[in-house]
Amino acid sequence: MERRGSVSRGRGERTSKHASLVRHVFGPVPSRRLSRSLGIDPVPFKTCTFDCIYCQLGRTTQKTVERKEYVPCEVVVKELRDYLSNAPPFDFVTFSGSGEPTLNKALGKMISAVRELTEAQIAVLTNGSLLFDERVAEDLSGADVVLPSLDAASEEIFRRVNRPHESISLQKLVEGLKKFRKRFKGEIWVEVMLLSGVNDGEEHLLALARLLREVNAEKVQLNTPVRPSPERCAALSESDLERALKLFLEEGVPAEIIPSVPSIPTASASSTTDAFTAKEQVRGVRGVEWERKKSEVQALLSRRPCTVEEISTSLGLNASEVVKYLRILESEGKLRMRKHGERTFFAVIR
Ligand code: SF4
Q1: What's CA 53's distance to the chain center, in Å?
Q2: Cα-to-centroid distance, 315 and ligand 1 (Å)
Q3: Where residue 170 sits, what CATH number does that domain have?
């Protein structure tokens, strides 16, 4: 799951002082699966039950299965209320962010509060590792869509790709998924992250397809890394993704490929690289508004690497404005830039 700037990254529970400094509502981000998605991040940075090799956020710093109110429900609700008073349009409110959202034991209360505050659909991105827990399943019951992951059909590949907490096995995860399917009234969209040379062998894909058929989700969404990740996982080519899709469909799995570009009209951004290398003047954009926008850009980029176009679409800023804030963040030593295929992504340095 995906990620902050003028934001503290302390481990474990935050004090109320910290809570007032950290933003837990971010975006809306252009999501390839959920259109325009307003994010809620209910756990501290990289607090997760997994340490996936493809994680865009780097290594997990707090690998745990302990459920706690890492971020208090009232803090999230207050931020959301403030945000909604001046919000650009969005389609989903999505619990995701910089760790595993089901680790927050106030998740059920947060979902109920979101339901009262907006008419948007509610989605939860999860790695699925805690779905076996009745309390987690109960917390998720108020969501419209739950999007768990399943990247492996063997314990060996599971350990290699997801590097889970020692108490979690693939068998426990799959049983949890099947149990959750039986009780959850909303839709389940399983994501399968395919990595070249790791979990895309024909035999493994067949075994995965069989497991997924048993899970009986509404959708199975095939993905491959499109953003830079610190461990540089190799993405599947278009033709290899198509090959995997064909195999899944032949096995009766309702699979689709997640498009590599969000299905949202882009703002008036020109080419990313051109935009960033343009000789923009930073002077003259100072003041409170400047600080607020800069911190919005920073918050977005600390959750996931984005292109200029994506920042522009997410935050409703034009491309040249985005470039100004990127330049400022760069001059403050807070920004890194990485090419991934033809696209240039920006991320916050921690
Ligand atoms: S589940 Fe994997 S990808 Fe998602 S935050 Fe945890 S380590 Fe990163």
Answers
A1: 15
A2: 24
A3: 3.20.20.70
Same domain, 81 and 115: yes
Whether 107 maps to a domain, the answer reads yes
Q: Which residues lie below 8 Å from residue 96, measured CB to CB, with a gap of 6+?
A: 1, 2, 39, 40, 41, 124, 125
Q: What is the pLDDT of residues 208-248, one digit of tens each?
A: 999 999 999 999 999 998 777 767 788 999 999 999 999 99
Do both 147 and 249 map to the same domain?
yes
Sign of the dihedral defined by the CA atoms of residues 94, 98, 101, 105, in that order: negative
Instruction: Choose one of 1, 195, 233 to mutate for the ligand 1 pocket test, by most ligand atoms within 8 angstroms of C-beta.
Output: 1
Q: Domain check: are 149 and 69 in the same one?
A: yes
Amino acid letter for position 169: S
User: Can you name the residues that pair with 138 across neighbouring β-strands?
Assistant: none
| CA–CA gap between residue 247 and residue 120 (Å, rounded) | 35
Residue 2 covered by a domain? no
- For the stretch 76-124, pLDDT in tens is 999 999 888 877 778 899 998 789 999 999 999 999 999 999 999 999 9
- Taking the C-alpha atoms of residue 122 and residue 178, their distance in angstroms, rounded to an integer, is 21
**Ligand 1, closest atom to CA 1?**
4
Domain, as residue range, for 108: 16-257
pLDDT digits (tens, 9 = 90+) for 116-141: 999 999 999 999 999 999 999 999 99
Is 111 part of any domain?
A: yes
Total domains, the chain: 2
93 with 121: CB under 8 angstroms? Answer: yes
Checking if the pLDDT of 342 tops 60, the result is yes
Do 122 and 247 belong to one domain? yes
Answer positive or negative: Cα dihedral of 93, 94, 98, 104.
positive
Note whether residue 42 is domain-resident: yes
Structure tokens that stand for 183 in this block: 């009780």
Cα 284 to middle of ligand 1, angstroms: 39
